[in-house]
Specification:
Length: 257
């Protein structure tokens, strides 16, 4: 089975992959490298025969790798808070490092204390992508005392600087372990500032009630905005075809971010 070699080069740099394509396929199928990147809006007519595709290669490459089209790629960019606007219910008082990538969670003052933090987020390097569930806030939380029988909760809200109300709010999520990651997904179309430059996140921990053995609170740790955004890519085609055994499915990813 003859396949022609296509490669993409990310205009941001440091991302690349190779896959194989033949004239029987109508488009380059989506790729999902380890980083969570994917390809979309990259198509060839699909009407070309092998010979016509070979002619296309010859015409476009002139014997060398050559850009034949452009497209876009989605990339998840992890962003951690750059400032604390407010926090409450922690002893010692919460510090910015508690909510950053390598932070140790801020600890609730007691098993009956509600906790909260309000942080500002950095601006993504490109505007966040619209779409249901495309954006995600991940928060590391934990029970104040796993020996208690009660289950505290956590709630995540997305805000913009100067806004009078939350743009998106999660449900109350049960906190069931000493350390766990909870995720709230949302759509960037709610943003008033499209480039994401004024996004803020609020996290609220609600203590469980009940008798003395049931009382428990929520510790709050690293907060990450996985900002899914687009980036321009250039698509290249090699002048050389390769023979791939028919049993090997296409595309075959041989490199990635």
């Amino acid at each position: 089975m003859k396949k022609y070699v296509f490669e993409y080069a990310d205009a941001d740099g440091a991302v690349g992959a190779t896959w194989f394509f033949d004239a029987a396929e109508s488009s380059v199928p989506a790729q999902t490298p380890d980083t969570g990147c994917s390809i979309y809006n990259v198509t060839i007519t699909g009407s070309e025969t092998d010979a016509e595709l070979a002619d296309l290669v010859d015409a476009k490459t002139q014997g060398a790798n050559h850009k034949i089209m452009t497209g876009q790629m989605k990339r998840k960019e992890p962003l951690f808070p750059d400032a604390i606007t407010a926090s409450a219910g922690f002893t010692p008082a919460a510090a910015l490092v508690d909510f950053q990538e390598s932070g140790d969670p801020a600890t609730a003052t007691s098993n009956t204390t509600d906790t909260s933090c309000h942080v500002t987020m950095p601006t993504p390097s490109k505007a966040p992508t619209h779409g249901t569930g495309e954006q995600a806030i991940e928060v590391t939380v934990g029970q104040f005392d796993t020996g208690q029988t009660g289950t505290p909760t956590v709630r995540i809200e997305v805000w913009e600087n100067g806004g009078g109300s939350a743009l998106a709010t999660s449900s109350e999520i049960n906190v069931t372990d000493a350390s766990q990651e909870v995720t709230f997904t949302w759509n960037a179309d709610i943003l008033g500032t499209a480039d994401g430059s004024v996004v803020e996140v609020k996290v609220f921990g609600t203590a469980s009630g009940g008798g003395p053995s049931a009382r428990n609170a929520t510790n709050i740790g690293p907060i990450c905005w996985l900002a899914l955004r687009g980036t321009d890519i250039n698509i290249y085609i090699s002048p050389d075809s390769v023979e791939i055994p028919a049993a090997v499915p296409a595309p075959v990813v041989t490199g990635g971010a």
